[in-house]
């Protein structure tokens, strides 16, 4: 028998089938899931209530990969960014955003985690760091799931190191004293990569993160952000789970949008908005438009009217996000006056509008930037070593 896949890419049913084939009693699966998703152990030997023979079998059959933390930016109570190294050496980012008035959900949000779905991105939006060096590969389901577990593991370790300074609330007991408590109750799929281009792995991972035996995160607390893959938006509308959808619009006319997002040539606004309409009709009011404000590109008042029309048609709200400067790219964030003028004009047309005061701007919060910087540092380091 050889390792075929990672244990954390397995659904309840898949594990059940395997355990039945191994003639294991049902409670063994419950014990295994507890080790994986409640205690979040990182090796088979830690699963002390499973017989050694079963542990050996599991080890031969499945991998149990965990990402290594390479770099972390940010401190307690502010946005924190994690750079992970995967088993093949690839680097990805996750961003932990602490309790704040919710961006996508209810006002009681506690901790939101922004996760990556690919290494790099093939969509090449002109303003984005993730796409700068192209697409390397899709993340597997377990690599998506592990971002949540690894941040929670890190949180438990922090808390054990300094229990009095804990900012998290224990969702299971309310005491804050249980070491295995869950930290993350909101997920945004807005890290590196285009989630809907890794559709099957994403759906599998979200199924696991949503399941009561897995991550226990409500589907309505999970927001998937897409640059606008119209066919996959329709497919997502037909899924049983009620995920929220965020569409990265960034331009309310084809002319402006195509200039900064090549994907708009494939799926222009007419096609994208029809797919969003379909999503909206199936799921109710669950669409948000993301609109980065970039100086002299899409921040003119001419964009406000078509943006309002689209938002009204789809019953969507609009999140305005001041652009985060990316090293090596020419784009700039508009002045606060321009940002506020745009937001006010949109609100005046009756659109629910938020202007995000970007947390963590100073730590390269826009995903993809920490990885880019680290990869460039590594290349520079390798070049120095060669000289
Ligand atoms: N590929 C998906 C999800 C990842 S990008 C998408 O495009 O929606 C997540 C969000 O970050 C998108 O809205 C994207 O446009 C935005 N983004 C990318 N670079 C940014 C930057 N430098 N400043 C602000 N937002 C940025
Ligand atoms: Fe890819 Fe999204 Fe960045 Fe565009 S904005 S390059 S789709 S990660």
Task: Produce a short descriptive summary.
The chain has 387 residues and is of the alpha/beta class. The protein has helices at 12-21, 26-38, 52-61, 141-161, 199-210, 230-237, 254-260, 263-266, 269-283, 304-314, 336-348, 369-386, and strands spanning 5-6, 62-63, 68-73, 80-85, 91-97, 112-114, 118-120, 135-138, 186-189, 222-226, 244-248, 287-293, 317-322, 353-355.
Task: Describe this protein's structure.
The protein has 387 residues and is α/β, with parallel strands linked by helices. The chain folds into 2 domains: 5-63, Orthogonal Bundle (DNA polymerase, domain 1); 68-386, Aldolase class I (TIM Barrel, Alpha-Beta Barrel), CATH 3.20.20. 37% of the residues lie in helices and 16% in strands. It has 12 helices and 14 strands. It has a 10-stranded mixed beta sheet, sandwiched between helices. The chain has a two-stranded parallel ribbon with strand order 1-2. Strands 7-8 form a two-stranded antiparallel ribbon. Helix 5 (199-210) links the parallel strand 9 and strand 10. Bound molecules: S-adenosyl-L-homocysteine and iron/sulfur cluster. Iron/sulfur cluster is lined by residues 121, 123-125, 128, 130-131, 193-194, 227, 248.
